[in-house]
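User: I've been trying to design a sequence by hand for this structure and keep getting stuck. Would you show me what you'd pick, starting by listing the structure so we're on the same page?

Assistant: Good idea, let's start from the same input. This is the structure you sent:
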């Protein structure tokens, strides 16, 4: 009887869908007709971080998501995931 109860509990637990993580994750965006070197300024809500960080952009109005351009797509991640918490605080934020 204990074995049946354990199997029933186990099958119930395995059948439940996983809860999505609250931590934002990385995602890719296609550049649609542009490359890393010809993204018009202000397009797609991107701002270049710094001349020293070529092909790296802030996404949106704040400085929470960083996108890296690779050929014709962007890889965008929260800055703590992209650079790590020890480095991300020294990346210059130009929120204009």
């Amino acid at each position: 009887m204990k074995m049946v109860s354990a199997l029933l509990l186990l099958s119930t637990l395995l059948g439940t869908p996983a809860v999505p993580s609250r931590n934002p994750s990385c995602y890719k965006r296609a550049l649609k007709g542009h490359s890393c070197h010809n993204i018009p300024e202000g397009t797609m809500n991107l701002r270049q971080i710094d001349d020293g960080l070529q092909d790296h952009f802030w996404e949106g109005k704040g400085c929470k998501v960083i996108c890296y351009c690779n050929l014709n797509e962007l890889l965008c991640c929260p800055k703590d995931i992209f650079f790590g918490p020890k480095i991300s605080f020294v990346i210059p934020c130009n929120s204009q």
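That's my pick for every position. To get oriented when you compare it with your attempt: The longest strand covers residues 65-70. The two ends are 67 Å apart (CA to CA).
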